[in-house]
């Protein structure tokens, strides 16, 4: 077994940390010698001579017990903080190896717990420093876009219409996400969960997905248009996905306009998502900006290979109080040499008195207008 003490070479700086570690090893050696001397007279006594790794051991780490007279693994009972070790990775009469299991109540800083070893020949125990492993937060990006609108016109007769959204998740780990639709006119709206059940929100377990493929799934939202709705009524449908653990891992689809009596907008060929705004500026379905102060919004388009034009527009902008500008070079086009993400930097300014409205970001193929992506983002002044 290699020595746990790192050798010193000529010219190396000998730190206090190294010396303290060396002194700890000497103290540990003296304790082991004393234990052997005191227990060695008893024939067949169980002795724990060393525990590796030294210092703080974290949940999930491999722990190695070194000693003598451990006996057969089938007859050994090892507990750590009162929890029995159910499985050994390897073992012999002088060595036991296992992974530290999850233990309730252990903090991340480390705390002393009792390790015990029992077999037909006797009992031994030692105190070890045990700590929980720091929690890893899910991080990444979520992209949502309409992939299949309902066929025909939206009729106000109590009918229910299904809108299918494509979700692509790029995440560093498996995670459960909460999918929740919203509709600004109060009509009944529900999401179809993984089991087919309808509800105001649903939880979807999504596996880890890396770039560029990610993890993909379809989510269906159902909207019921009541018979009391008037022809021409405008509603906005949006689907939001949020990590169950990391509340900052969140994104929403474009705000989809629904006009009673008209057909739903066609599904785009690719997604355009809002991925970065000033902290605290997202309030529900709106991005809220301070009056007379420029705000920067970053959009991301997941485009096929090709050349594209960029169109930025404000849908209702009386007196031109809203202004949206491209911060790209050139400002209104780009070429993607391969499929993937393209970032669209914009600057939005709203003058005092500007009314809540929609910002529309459209990316269109210059060779095939049917290949487009669009993001409709609701905006208002703070």
UniProtKB/TrEMBL annotation:
Q: What is this protein called?
A: IPT/TIG domain-containing protein
């Amino acid at each position: 077994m290699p020595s746990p003490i790192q050798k010193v070479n000529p010219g190396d700086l000998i730190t206090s940390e190294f010396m303290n570690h060396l002194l700890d090893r000497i103290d540990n050696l003296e304790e082991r010698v004393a234990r052997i001397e005191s227990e060695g007279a008893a024939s067949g006594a169980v002795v724990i001579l060393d525990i590796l790794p030294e210092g703080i051991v974290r949940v999930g780490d491999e722990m190695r017990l070194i000693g003598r007279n451990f006996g057969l693994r089938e007859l050994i009972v090892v507990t750590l903080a009162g929890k029995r070790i159910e499985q050994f990775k390897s073992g012999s009469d002088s060595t036991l190896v296992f992974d530290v299991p999850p233990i309730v109540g252990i903090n991340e800083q480390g705390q002393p717990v009792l390790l015990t070893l029992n077999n037909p020949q006797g009992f031994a125990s030692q105190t070890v420093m045990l700590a929980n492993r720091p929690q890893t937060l899910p991080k990444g990006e979520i992209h949502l876009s309409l992939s299949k609108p309902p066929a025909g016109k939206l009729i106000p007769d109590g009918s229910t219409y299904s809108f299918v959204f494509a979700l692509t998740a790029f995440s560093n780990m498996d995670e459960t996400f909460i999918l929740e639709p919203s509709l600004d006119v109060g009509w009944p709206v529900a999401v179809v969960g993984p089991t087919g059940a309808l509800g105001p929100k649903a939880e979807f377990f999504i596996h880890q997905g890396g770039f560029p493929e990610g993890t993909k799934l379809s989510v269906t939202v159902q909207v019921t248009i009541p018979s009391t709705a008037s022809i021409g009524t405008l509603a906005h449908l949006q689907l939001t996905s949020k990590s169950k653990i990391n509340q900052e891992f969140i994104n929403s689809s474009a705000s989809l306009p629904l006009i009673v009596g008209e057909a739903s907008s066609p599904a785009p060929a690719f997604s355009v998502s809002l991925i970065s705004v000033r902290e605290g500026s997202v309030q529900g379905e709106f991005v809220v900006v301070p009056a007379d102060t420029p705000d920067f919004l970053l959009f991301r388009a997941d485009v096929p290979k090709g050349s594209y034009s960029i169109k930025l527009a404000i849908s209702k902008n009386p007196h031109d109080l809203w202004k949206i500008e491209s911060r790209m070079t050139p400002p209104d086009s780009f070429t993607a040499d391969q499929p993937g993400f393209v970032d669209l930097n914009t600057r939005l300014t709203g003058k005092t008195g500007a009314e809540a409205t929609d910002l529309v970001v459209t990316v269109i193929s210059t060779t095939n207008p049917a290949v487009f992506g669009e993001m409709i983002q609701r905006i208002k002044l703070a």
